[in-house]
Amino acid sequence: MGKYKFIVFEGIDGSGKTVQSKKLSESINGYYTYEPTDGEIGKLIRRVLRGEIDYSSETLALLFAADRREHVSTISRELENRHVVSDRYIYSSIVYQTIQGVDLDFILSINRFAIKPDILVYLDVDVEEALRRLGKYRKEIFENRDTLRLVRERYWDIVKNKIFKPRYGYIVIDTTKKSIEETHREILRVLKERGIIEQ
Ligand code: TYD
Known about the structure:
The protein is α/β, with parallel strands linked by helices. It has a single domain (6-193), classed as P-loop containing nucleotide triphosphate hydrolases (Rossmann fold, 3-Layer(aba) Sandwich), CATH 3.40.50.300.
């Protein structure tokens, strides 16, 4: 087992995972990365998310898996030298694509190459607070109240039913009433307590 850890952040849109994953990555001198990626497949995915292309939900699931396959190569390479912090990973596919009606077994099977992360940091947030944070910039297909509610429920299902369980399990942090700094300190504290990062 490598000395560096693969840490994944997940949460509903507006949970603060992008800010928090970047901040953590800076604090531990890690490599910050995200999905969908900036690669060619990732760019195509963003066009689908903006509603510019209308693909079936299975096609979108396959695109996310293809984008991830390339991403996994980068992650594995980076892990040889530093911790890797990823903003979204396979859990996003399990949550969002099943909401679009794609079968869970299909998703797991097309993602069979996906390496297990060491830990999943799930940032929970009240849906109304998430909508306030998203403000007027809401434009992607999943960023509406009903979908956010469903997404939040499915993330809880993953944690409760231990789906695609990371090596060291899950960390759940409620960010609803916390400032960015408070959440950041809490994440560092728990990761140290669990022995994922050094004291
Ligand atoms: P998001 O993190 O919101 O990117 P950005 O903040 O740059 O817009 O991710 C875009 C959307 O993609 C988000 O609504 C969740 C969705 N998504 C999936 O549906 N499946 C996946 O496998 C991934 C990684 C993301």
